[in-house]
Design goal:
The chain is of the alpha/beta class and about 260 residues long. The protein contains 11 helices and 8 strands. The protein folds into 2 domains: about 120 residues, 3-Layer(aba) Sandwich (Rossmann fold), CATH 3.40.50; about 100 residues, 3-Layer(aba) Sandwich (Rossmann fold), CATH 3.40.50.1860. Helix 1 links the parallel strand 1 and strand 2. The longest helix has 13 residues.
Length: about 260
Amino acid sequence: MFMSGDIVSSKDWSPALNRGRHHRARLGFILMSTDLAAEADFFDMVPEGVAVHITRLKTEDYTTNETLARHIDYMADAASRIQPDLKPDVVSYSCTSGSIVIGEDRVMAEIKTGAPWAQPMCLVQGVLDALNELGAKKIVVGTPYLDEVNTAEAEYLLKKGFEVLDIQGLNLSTGTEMGQVTPEFWKEFAVAIDQPEADAIFLSCGGIRSLEVAEAIEQITGKPVITSNQAQFWSCLRRAGITDELTGFGQIFSRPGNALLP
């Protein structure tokens, strides 16, 4: 029995160690402080043995091209805080519009500065990876963004070789509002903006609840649906060497992504 004034002297123990619960891969994500959707989406999708590590980037709850551009100021610091001792396989900036406004090369350079042990990624690169994997060239895009952000996104997608048949935004200005739009609305919205000649439907924004209805939209429209969190997570898994075929989150998870594998 320990009594006040005693000195603890433990026996010699030989603890059994293994690679831990997350022995297959570790994924790190830098989320906006206003994001209400991505964290839950990632934990819904994560396969057994894969870790999801989250940090938050200080952001204003007002989403314009100007405020998005300021995310880069904190990127390296945020990346450095994601389990540096365990060295995640991939660290990704989880903001579609921010990736576009800042530029994916600049984002990845800052992540590499903060987390040199990890493969740097950003959300829009995951979207490009998924659309290219599907061979989609003609797309319709639905977003929650203001039209100044929608215009920047449309220009970006054109430069990447996609034909944007239509892009429609809800003109919401805050991340809180974006995260409060119901999944049922996103389903109805996606069906409404679809066009017969579209190869795929892209619902853009890591802070919206579109993952929950991606498969339902695919069943209604008969074509692939890409959501920001789904595409990013699929790409990060493949880049970390995880080729699991997940169900319930859209047909992209049936694709091997061989070009992304390490």
